[in-house]
Amino acid sequence: MAEQGPALHKFGMSTLVKRRARLISVPRPALIALAVVRARLRASEFGMTALAIGVGVSSGLCVVVMTTIANTAHVRIFGIPFDVHLSAAQRIAPLVAFGALMLGGLVLGALDIWLARRNARPAVDPVEANALRGGRMSLRQSILVAAQTVISNGAGASVGLEAGYAQIGAGVASYLGVRSRLRRQDLRMLVGCGAGGAIAAAFGAPLTGAFYAFELIIGAYSLANAIPVFAATLAASLTTQAIVGAPYDITAPAVAPLTFPDFGALIGLGLVAAAVGVGAMRIAALIERAFRWAIPWRLVRPVVGGAMIGSMALYTPQVLGAGHGALGLDFYWPMTVAELAILIVLKLFACLVSLASGFRGGMFFASLFVGSLLGKLYAIGVDFLAPSMGLETTACILVGMGALSAAIVGGPLTMTFLVLESTGNLGVAGGALAASIATTLAVRATFGYSFTTWRLHLRGETIRGGQDVGWLRDLTVGRMMVRSPPMFLADHTVRAFREAYPIGSANVVVAIGDDGRYRGLIHVAEAYAQLLENGDDGGPIAALAGLPATALHPDDNVRKALDVFGASQADTLAVIARGTEQVLGTLGEAYAARRYAQETNLAMRGVLGGG
């Protein structure tokens, strides 16, 4: 009870009283019914599928709301017809282009300062949530990110809404899953349903959304996850189609069957896309550092970024927004090599400036748009070098879309199914798959990250996808160690040690100095193996203490602990505080290995569909 006093004081008695009052006000039958529903959701495949369908519908509705707000902002601010996308406008008035982007940047800068003063934590995206947090996300932060994305896209920044779609879809899913007290693996799967459902709703492509969830959010495909994820993406797509239609629907003309040489050429396009994607991701970090160095004021940074994007919009409005309208316009429009090269550079630079300066959004559709331009440029080059080959420009455009998106966003199967659902042509989808595989292999070999995981890497994370590694970080030495281990002063004698610790009383004793610092480990059997004659005290026990420079720390994870055990060839190690070297406990190798094996088994059962 003595330990509870400070905690109760810190928590606040009034808060406890309020919570108890709320619990008392709920009828007991309602609490029992809620517990039964939660148990059935966790235990029943039908229950999880029903919950996934609800998440899919919610994601579809969120996509409808965000799209409607952004499109209305484009119509009202830029004066374009409602059925014309911003990037497809013929021209934008200079005052409007600069004013909208700079004012939107000012709003985002002020919001950023407000959040900094409140010491708000950075929002957790679906990939980070599933990789490190077991699927737990803040719904409030997700709503805020979605609002920032709508403001950015509505003001004309060169970003897409799809990142906001996925964020709010996953946030709603995480909220419902936490409220339903789902197990860790079920919650991660539901977050994948929310994000994948949002992408499916955005493109009107259920298979694309499902594999977006598998490849990028969940990090694995299994039969146990397949039914809920497919149900969620189908429900999300149908919801959006029934209300407003898919915001980013892609249509393409028919393409002739591909030949074997065509596949070789398209694989070459995939390698070119990999080079462009890696270059864009590396330049992104440079631009972000340049903005922070040149413009230290958070309020001004997005305003300057808006002015830069506005100046590019005077050359062509195609740099504004996600680029959906421009993609449909340029698909059939003849363009020269110079026009294509300039537009590729401008669009990529506008996207990177938008994100680096403080606008929020995604590069999913922007990478599709730039990839289509890259494919058209590649087709012109192939036709110039090998005119007899007859490689279709449409095939290059579609494959370029998938390949560059696979390089920047990740997910080769996701992009392949997007091409398939856009064209209905299995031959072109096969070419997109071959190019996307080549792209992914090249990016992994030379860079190793997608744009999402690269931005997390710049923040200090090391994850490369949605695979669950959070359990490994949570299983720390501090959680596994034995607290208050037997200790003995290192400057006392061997005889005094024998008197304090008879044989059988302990296996290993921690030697400490007068200041409490760690001095090594003493094996009791070794202390008794030393022969002591009458009157001989054996000298300081410190002479028998081993591993004085080897110890664990409470924040080390189990993987690092096992590496230290292997390097030191010790059965037991001391756990000490960083800096002070005060002894906190001990940890045995056998127990650490057993806990690691147990958690690995649980994680694999979750991936493969076990209980």
Q: Would you write up a description of this structure?
A:
The structure is a single chain. The protein has 611 residues and is mainly alpha-helical. The protein folds into 3 domains: 38-243, Clc chloride channel, CATH 1.10.3080.10; 260-466, Clc chloride channel (Orthogonal Bundle); 471-604, Roll (CBS-domain), CATH 3.10.580.10. Helices cover 65% and strands 4% of the residues. The protein has 26 helices and 6 strands. It has helices at residues 4-11, 13-25, 28-43, 45-78, 94-117, 126-132, 139-154, 162-179, 184-203, 206-218, 223-243, 260-294, 301-315, 324-330, 337-357, 364-385, 393-408, 412-423, 426-446, 451-458, 470-474, 477-480, 494-500, 524-529, 558-568, 589-608; strands at 482-483, 487-489, 508-512, 518-523, 572-576, 583-588. Strands 1-6-5 form a 3-stranded antiparallel beta sheet. It has a 3-stranded mixed beta sheet with strand order 2-3-4. A hairpin with a 5-residue loop joins strand 3 (508-512) and strand 4. Helix 4 (45-78) packs parallel to helix 11, helix 12 crosses helix 15 and helix 12 packs across helix 17 (393-408). The longest helix is centred in the middle third of the chain and has 35 residues, at 260-294. The two termini are 37 Å apart. Mean pLDDT is 85; it is low at 1-24.
